[in-house]
């Protein structure tokens, strides 16, 4: 223990270090102990009068930065509301007005349900494995390694790395799009309020490099607890932006034009990808639950948070397409008049997406830190910030190189999101509930999970079809 970071007074590992080390531990020990308990009949024999004590994962968590319900809800809203909300009206244009609205509501409820499904499965595994918390990749590995399908137990690491890859690519593309959106918004704002900037016509890459400076510093915040005040303020900004957007949409509406309710299958698949990209937050679900002081009330966070997210996305998409029709372009701010309210709106948007960038950055960086953090037992905080800075610079370089390919990055995010939002949570839940005594109830759950997995596969194929077509 001498090589670990220690508190000056006690010379014992700090809580922060213990938490990091716990999160970096291999699950091999816990998985082996669980399999030994389930396979060895002697371990199930209890002394007379003695009952087996159920593991209390809440009491075992040692998190000095635990978040309350309000903070967790703010993080979930920021984790779900992405850059896609600026382009959701264009998605409505592809799918048709009323078809897109109905599909939007349906996808929103399914995403919310899958979040709860994932957390419910994770909390069951906490008790089985006697561990206080699990990440999404940890959960997949544990479920496969201990599940009823013994033929695939040896592939648990493969499933873990697959989820790591899907989450990493999805969140990296999302972070890049956030950075590009912020840069484009500032570019449009500066050119609209200053004739000098309009005459200079600076390339978008310059604005991306300028935006990278504040993003670099806000990315140095290592704990979600410290991001909570910023998330709450950003959520207020987001609400104001949504209201102003609806106001301008109604104000600019030409009532003599009729919007089609349905367009085509190709357009519907295109809309599904944009919609899922606009309100998905499956990647931040378990990190938020793991950081909560009362994780047993996570369903409240999902109910309130996803209701706000769904209402915001549906409102911007519906009224945006209802107002500007086939002339829809992203971001939605390009349609607004250049008055004082619109300028304030764009400033609020840039601040909101800067905070959202830092929240989304937290998940892919934890993936990187999981594999390299064990090399730095001393000064872990300094090393983590060092790698965070390098990671932000890599994302910035990627945004500069592919600044005109945001649609392609959105496709990468949508394709992988369909897998980790629909397929994996339902598959995990099927393995966790396998063997329940109520056979009729089990069959209903398995049928439900089969439907969700089928939706995931259809959306993956639809993403390819919509972009090839």
From TrEMBL:
Q: Where in the cell is it found?
A: Membrane
Q: What is its main location?
A: membrane
Keyword terms: Membrane, Transmembrane, Transmembrane helix
Per the record, the domain of life is: Eukaryota
Where in the numbering of this chain does the Amino acid transporter transmembrane domain appear?
69-468
Name this polypeptide is given:
Amino acid transporter transmembrane domain-containing protein
- Spans traversing the lipid bilayer: 97-119, 158-182, 202-220, 227-248, 268-286, 298-323, 343-365, 386-403, 415-434, 446-468
Instruction: Write down the membrane topology.
Output: Multi-pass membrane protein
InterPro entries reported in the protein's UniProt record: AA_transpt_TM
């Amino acid at each position: 223990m001498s090589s670990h970071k220690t508190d000056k007074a006690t010379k014992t590992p700090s809580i922060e270090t213990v938490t990091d080390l716990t999160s970096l531990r291999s699950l091999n020990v816990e998985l082996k102990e669980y399999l030994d308990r389930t396979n060895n009949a002697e371990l199930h024999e209890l002394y007379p009068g003695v009952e087996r004590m159920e593991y209390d994962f809440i009491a075992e968590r040692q998190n000095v930065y635990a978040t309350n319900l309000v903070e967790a809800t703010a993080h979930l809203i920021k984790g779900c509301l992405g850059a896609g909300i600026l382009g959701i009206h264009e998605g409505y244009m592809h799918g048709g007005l009323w078809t897109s609205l109905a599909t939007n509501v349906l996808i929103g409820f399914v995403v919310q349900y899958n979040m709860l499904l994932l957390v419910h499965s994770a909390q069951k595994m906490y008790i089985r494995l006697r561990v206080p918390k699990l990440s999404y990749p940890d959960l997949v590995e544990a479920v496969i390694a201990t599940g009823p399908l013994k033929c695939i137990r040896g592939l648990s690491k493969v499933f873990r790395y697959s989820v790591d890859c899907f989450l990493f690519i999805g969140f990296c593309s999302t972070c890049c799009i956030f950075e590009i959106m912020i840069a484009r918004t500032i570019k449009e704002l500066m050119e609209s309020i200053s004739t000098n900037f309009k005459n200079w016509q600076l390339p978008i890459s310059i604005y991306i490099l300028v935006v990278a400076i504040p993003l670099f510093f806000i990315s140095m915040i290592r704990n979600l607890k410290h991001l909570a005040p910023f998330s709450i303020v950003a959520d207020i900004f987001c609400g104001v932006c949504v209201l102003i957007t609806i106001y301008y949409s109604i104000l600019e509406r030409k009532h003599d034009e009729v919007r089609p309710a349905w367009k085509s299958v190709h357009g519907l698949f295109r809309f599904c990808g944009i919609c899922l990209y606009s309100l998905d937050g499956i990647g931040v679900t378990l990190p938020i639950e793991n950081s909560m002081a009362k994780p047993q009330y996570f369903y409240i966070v999902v109910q309130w948070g996803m209701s706000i997210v769904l209402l915001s996305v549906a409102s911007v998409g519906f009224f945006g397409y209802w107002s500007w029709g086939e002339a829809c372009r992203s971001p939605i701010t390009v349609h607004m008049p250049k008055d004082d309210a619109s300028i304030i709106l764009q400033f609020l948007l840039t601040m909101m997406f800067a905070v959202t960038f830092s929240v989304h950055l937290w998940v892919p960086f934890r993936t990187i830190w999981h594999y390299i953090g064990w090399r730095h037992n001393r000064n872990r905080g300094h090393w983590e910030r060092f790698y965070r800075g390098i990671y932000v610079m890599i994302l910035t370089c990627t945004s500069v190189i592919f600044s005109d390919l945001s649609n392609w990055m959105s496709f990468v995010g949508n394709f992988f999101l369909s897998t980790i939002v629909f397929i994996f949570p339902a598959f995990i839940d099927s393995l966790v509930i396998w063997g329940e005594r109520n056979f009729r109830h089990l069959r209903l759950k398995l049928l439900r999970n089969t439907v969700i997995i089928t939706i995931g596969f259809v959306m993956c194929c639809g993403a390819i079809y919509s972009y090839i077509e």
